[in-house]
Design brief:
By secondary structure, the chain is mainly alpha-helical. It has one domain: Large-conductance mechanosensitive channel, MscL, domain 1 (Non-ribosomal Peptide Synthetase Peptidyl Carrier Protein, Chain A), CATH 1.10.1200. Helix content is 71%, strand content 3%. A two-stranded antiparallel sheet has the order 1-2. Helix 2 packs across helix 4. The longest helix is centred in the first third of the chain and has 35 residues. It is elongated and about 105 Å long. The termini are far apart. 4% of the residues are buried.
Length: 142
Protein backbone atom coordinates (compact mmCIF):
# COMPACT_ATOMS: atom_id res chain seq x y z
CA UNK A 1 0.00 0.00 0.00
CA UNK A 2 2.89 2.35 0.72
CA UNK A 3 4.33 1.67 -2.75
CA UNK A 4 0.98 2.48 -4.36
CA UNK A 5 0.89 5.75 -2.46
CA UNK A 6 4.43 6.58 -3.63
CA UNK A 7 3.42 5.87 -7.24
CA UNK A 8 0.34 8.05 -6.85
CA UNK A 9 2.34 10.95 -5.45
CA UNK A 10 5.07 10.58 -8.06
CA UNK A 11 2.63 11.03 -10.96
CA UNK A 12 3.08 14.30 -12.78
CA UNK A 13 -0.49 15.53 -12.42
CA UNK A 14 -0.47 15.18 -8.63
CA UNK A 15 2.80 17.07 -8.37
CA UNK A 16 1.51 19.77 -10.72
CA UNK A 17 -1.60 20.12 -8.58
CA UNK A 18 0.48 20.41 -5.42
CA UNK A 19 2.64 23.12 -6.97
CA UNK A 20 -0.48 24.95 -8.13
CA UNK A 21 -2.01 24.88 -4.66
CA UNK A 22 1.19 26.18 -3.06
CA UNK A 23 1.55 28.98 -5.61
CA UNK A 24 -2.15 29.79 -5.24
CA UNK A 25 -1.81 30.09 -1.47
CA UNK A 26 1.19 32.39 -1.83
CA UNK A 27 -0.63 34.44 -4.47
CA UNK A 28 -3.63 34.72 -2.17
CA UNK A 29 -1.41 36.22 0.52
CA UNK A 30 -0.13 38.79 -1.96
CA UNK A 31 -3.67 39.74 -2.94
CA UNK A 32 -4.68 39.93 0.74
CA UNK A 33 -1.80 42.30 1.36
CA UNK A 34 -2.71 44.46 -1.64
CA UNK A 35 -6.30 44.68 -0.44
CA UNK A 36 -5.60 45.21 3.25
CA UNK A 37 -2.51 47.41 2.95
CA UNK A 38 -3.11 49.39 -0.24
CA UNK A 39 -6.73 49.34 -1.40
CA UNK A 40 -8.73 49.34 1.82
CA UNK A 41 -6.95 52.35 3.37
CA UNK A 42 -7.72 54.39 0.24
CA UNK A 43 -11.34 53.19 0.16
CA UNK A 44 -11.66 53.88 3.87
CA UNK A 45 -10.28 57.38 3.48
CA UNK A 46 -12.59 58.11 0.54
CA UNK A 47 -15.66 56.94 2.44
CA UNK A 48 -14.70 58.86 5.56
CA UNK A 49 -14.61 55.73 7.66
CA UNK A 50 -10.95 55.67 8.49
CA UNK A 51 -8.59 52.95 7.38
CA UNK A 52 -10.15 49.84 8.88
CA UNK A 53 -13.37 48.20 7.74
CA UNK A 54 -13.11 45.34 10.21
CA UNK A 55 -14.93 47.29 12.93
CA UNK A 56 -17.90 48.25 10.77
CA UNK A 57 -21.02 46.71 12.23
CA UNK A 58 -24.65 47.39 13.02
CA UNK A 59 -25.87 46.51 16.50
CA UNK A 60 -28.85 44.16 16.46
CA UNK A 61 -29.37 44.46 20.18
CA UNK A 62 -30.02 47.52 22.31
CA UNK A 63 -27.34 46.36 24.73
CA UNK A 64 -24.52 46.95 22.23
CA UNK A 65 -22.72 50.22 22.91
CA UNK A 66 -19.12 49.23 22.11
CA UNK A 67 -17.09 50.87 19.37
CA UNK A 68 -15.07 47.82 18.32
CA UNK A 69 -16.47 44.66 16.79
CA UNK A 70 -14.85 42.35 19.33
CA UNK A 71 -16.31 44.25 22.27
CA UNK A 72 -19.69 44.58 20.55
CA UNK A 73 -19.91 40.82 20.00
CA UNK A 74 -19.44 40.32 23.72
CA UNK A 75 -22.34 42.69 24.45
CA UNK A 76 -24.85 41.17 22.03
CA UNK A 77 -25.78 40.38 18.45
CA UNK A 78 -24.20 42.48 15.70
CA UNK A 79 -24.36 42.56 11.91
CA UNK A 80 -20.64 42.70 11.06
CA UNK A 81 -20.52 43.88 7.45
CA UNK A 82 -17.02 45.41 7.46
CA UNK A 83 -15.15 42.14 7.05
CA UNK A 84 -17.51 41.18 4.23
CA UNK A 85 -16.62 44.39 2.39
CA UNK A 86 -12.92 43.58 2.71
CA UNK A 87 -13.37 39.98 1.56
CA UNK A 88 -15.57 41.06 -1.35
CA UNK A 89 -13.03 43.61 -2.58
CA UNK A 90 -10.34 40.95 -2.16
CA UNK A 91 -12.39 38.58 -4.33
CA UNK A 92 -12.94 41.21 -7.04
CA UNK A 93 -9.23 42.00 -7.22
CA UNK A 94 -8.29 38.32 -7.34
CA UNK A 95 -10.89 37.60 -10.03
CA UNK A 96 -9.65 40.57 -12.08
CA UNK A 97 -6.03 39.43 -11.83
CA UNK A 98 -6.94 35.87 -12.85
CA UNK A 99 -8.97 37.25 -15.77
CA UNK A 100 -5.98 39.31 -16.92
CA UNK A 101 -3.62 36.33 -16.59
CA UNK A 102 -5.91 34.08 -18.63
CA UNK A 103 -6.33 36.81 -21.23
CA UNK A 104 -2.53 37.16 -21.44
CA UNK A 105 -2.04 33.40 -21.81
CA UNK A 106 -4.71 33.19 -24.52
CA UNK A 107 -3.13 36.09 -26.40
CA UNK A 108 0.31 34.47 -26.21
CA UNK A 109 -1.12 31.13 -27.35
CA UNK A 110 -2.87 32.77 -30.32
CA UNK A 111 0.33 34.60 -31.23
CA UNK A 112 2.32 31.37 -31.24
CA UNK A 113 -0.32 29.65 -33.38
CA UNK A 114 -0.29 32.52 -35.90
CA UNK A 115 3.50 32.36 -36.16
CA UNK A 116 3.46 28.68 -36.99
CA UNK A 117 3.63 28.22 -40.74
CA UNK A 118 1.17 25.69 -42.03
CA UNK A 119 3.00 22.49 -42.72
CA UNK A 120 2.72 21.13 -46.23
CA UNK A 121 0.31 18.26 -46.54
CA UNK A 122 1.97 14.89 -46.34
CA UNK A 123 1.91 12.95 -49.59
CA UNK A 124 -0.67 10.19 -49.65
CA UNK A 125 0.57 6.70 -48.82
CA UNK A 126 1.85 4.53 -51.66
CA UNK A 127 -1.13 2.16 -51.57
CA UNK A 128 -3.55 5.08 -52.03
CA UNK A 129 -1.54 6.30 -55.02
CA UNK A 130 -1.64 2.83 -56.59
CA UNK A 131 -5.37 2.50 -55.99
CA UNK A 132 -5.93 5.93 -57.56
CA UNK A 133 -3.95 4.87 -60.64
CA UNK A 134 -5.98 1.65 -60.92
CA UNK A 135 -9.22 3.63 -60.64
CA UNK A 136 -8.11 6.05 -63.34
CA UNK A 137 -7.11 3.19 -65.66
CA UNK A 138 -10.47 1.49 -65.14
CA UNK A 139 -12.27 4.74 -65.97
CA UNK A 140 -10.30 5.03 -69.21
CA UNK A 141 -11.25 1.48 -70.31
CA UNK A 142 -14.93 1.95 -69.59
Amino acid sequence: MLNEFKEFIARGNVMDLAVGVIIGAAFSKIVDSVVNDLVMPVVGALTGGGFDFSDYFLPLSGNVTAQTLAAAREQGAVFAYGNFITVFINFLILAWIIFLLIKLVNRARASVEREKAPEPAAPPPQDILLLSEIRDLLKQRA
